[in-house]
Amino acid sequence: MYTLQTKACFDSAHFLKGYEGKCANLHGHRWTVEVELAAEELQPDGQCRGMVMDFSEVKSVLREEANRLDHCLLIEADSLKPVTMEALKDEGFRVLEFPFRPTAENFAKYFYDLMKQKGCPVTQVRVYETPNNCAGYRE
Questions:
Q1: pTM of structure
Q2: From residue 20, how far is each of 25, 107, 134 by CA, in Å?
Q3: pLDDT value, residue 95
Q4: How confident is the model at residue 43 (pLDDT cuts 50, 70, 90)?
Q5: Distances (CA, A) of 51 to 41, 54, 63, 65, 119
Q6: Rounded to 10 degrees, what is the CA torsion of 47, 51, 56, 58?
Q7: Rounded to whole angstroms, how far apart are CA atoms 99 and 79?
């Protein structure tokens, strides 16, 4: 089995609605996303001969999404009052809503699905909230 691994980082804030503890408060992370790809065989011909996949393609997919999530507030849909959302948008803040609670676990699955959808032979994704704490997803 051949494997590739790359990572990207972004800085964003979030909070966990309904959580009893510090993470219920708005706070930020330097998120790091590590993606692993694998293949039984290397590509036999063409520009990518001898590769699982061109690193530049993998990095492009991952970094595009990391850049989209960088320096914004990541929230679960409907976790803020409409008046709060409107005030944030009126102030020019970028807020991205997701159909899931913005946990490292959920973002690991989110990035896994994204990489798979973009044609990457992804096997595992790890999302670090801190240098010592990460969550992963693999099928």
A1: 0.94
A2: 10, 21, 20
A3: 97
A4: confident
A5: 9, 7, 20, 23, 15
A6: 130
A7: 10
Check: CB of residue 130 under 8 Å from CB of residue 136: no
Neighbour tally for 109: CB within 10 Å:
18
Alpha helix positions (H), 46-103: 55-69, 82-90
Please give the structure tokens belonging to residue 17: 């609605």
Per residue in 27-41, pLDDT (tens digit) is 999 999 999 999 999
Helix (H) or strand (E) holding 21: none
Find tokens 């159909």 and name the residue: 99
Q: What is the pLDDT of residues 110-130, one digit of tens each?
A: 999 999 999 999 999 999 999
**β-bridge partners, 11:** 30
